[in-house]
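Entry 0007
Protein: RNA polymerase sigma factor
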Amino acid sequence: MQGDAPGGLILTRENEWLRKIAEGDPAGWEELTDFYYEDILRYCLYHAPDRSLAEDAVQETFLKVVRYFPNYRHRGRFRAFLYKVAANTCADLWRRRREELPMEELEAVGAVSVGEPGFGRAEEEMVFQELVRGLSEELREIVYLRFAQDLKLREISQVTGLPLRTVQSRLRSALRQIKSGMEKEE
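Output (structure tokens):
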């Protein structure tokens, strides 16, 4: 199974970590956390107004995964489950933060930055980033998960809770909007 499909090695490693965790071996948690920490941090940085809140979200995400692991039912890749927990955690933390912040600070935070690693730094990439920022939040999320986090459409469906066809349709719509904007820039 390891070499049958792209990502097969990761899936095999993921299954090994899950087996270790189920057997109570703390090395499983350590390996899983080490492997996914940077990806989940990038995801949380995308959703949080500052690095501190993003790091809090990452810590809380992994704590929730540890806490609720006994209830986890292995269906598909664990990575999709991890992103779903991260998405919910970021939403909860940001909601709590908004309730605590004065209105002036909320306005200063503004739109979420898409300038995370994976989007590049070239001038064309800056135009691309602006176009992505101009998308609705739901389209921006799908574009980010697909291209910055390299999730498969089925995984995006699991993370967002949307049907696969809806994810496909929204991704096509987002890409059409981006392409149209890029053509206007030329």
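Curator remark: The chain has two domains: 1-110, 116-186. The chain has nine helices and no strands.
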